[in-house]
Amino acid sequence: MNCCKNLPIRLAFALLAALLPSVGQAEVLHVDDRAGRDDHPGTCAKPLKTIYEAARRVNASTNPGPATVLLAPGRYDLDRCVTFGGDRTFTEQDRLTIRAATLPDDPAWRPESMPTILSSERPETTGGITETYCLKVKTSHVTIHGLRFLGNSATSNMHCCVERVGADLDDLLVTQCLFLGDPDGLNIYCAALATGDRFVVDHCVFSKCHACTVYWDGLDEKEGKGCAMRYCIVEGALISGVWTCQTAEDFDFHHNVIAGGAYVWMRKPGDRQRYQIRDCAIVSNEHFSGYGVASGAIGRTGPEVRFDRANVTTSGRFEFASDHHTHLAADSIGRRLGAGLFRNRKHRRENRNDARQ
Asked: CA-CA distance, 143 to 141, in Å (whole number)?
């Protein structure tokens, strides 16, 4: 006998939904440093004011499903680190996403649309090293998307913009972000650092940072697998464009432009992995490959370290299209590689940055 035969259609569907496995609801928290308040519900009409409150709410929740923190244009001053990571479990499909409300490939995007993260945290000394941080990630399956990071003005300070350090962490995507350092002002020592598997940096721009991307093995010296750096621009790295520490040889490094820095590639002393570099432009750097420790480079590598190279350009002129550091000038080396903030080539060509300069 069909017990739903004589029920109204809507009631039948409600009964069917009740019998199906529950699906996690998406949680979206809007943050606006100018119009928001931290006692607001976090809706578009009534946003939160601080990233701290958004993190607190995400970390306190144990509900299944994805969570998104949407940052409105503005400047977000951090006098202490923001940490994302509680008891809530995310998956590859149901992710935690921290992103700009307007993303770079949106036709309405402008440089001033990028939320700007500025650290004013006072450094604490740990083992003789002073450190400050913007965002710490202590959970898996996270995307950080479309943000602009500046540095920290404290002296003798190893400032890090994005960090993921912990046991068995997986799947961190940092994409379409700007990291703009100033060694004489707002210094960035390490732009993005992570332990674990699948740390992917995509379509990001790094200007005058010390160590731009650091694929760290952590205190347990565990090999990181499935990591990548692709379609990125590195300009004027004070230590290196990329730093690998026991990162697995499946490291995917392609369509990057690295120019005008000290080292292109830094390694942990003793590492001998053989990596492939393909479809890149590498020009006007002092050295290609070196060994380094936390405080910086300790010297160049020798013949014991080898790279497989395919389609790597090593001569030409490097130039950004504008002072906004979003993409390369039309006649710059590496322009055809598609590196830079924009994924959409048409949008990159038509972006108003070129016309405004």
From this structure: 7
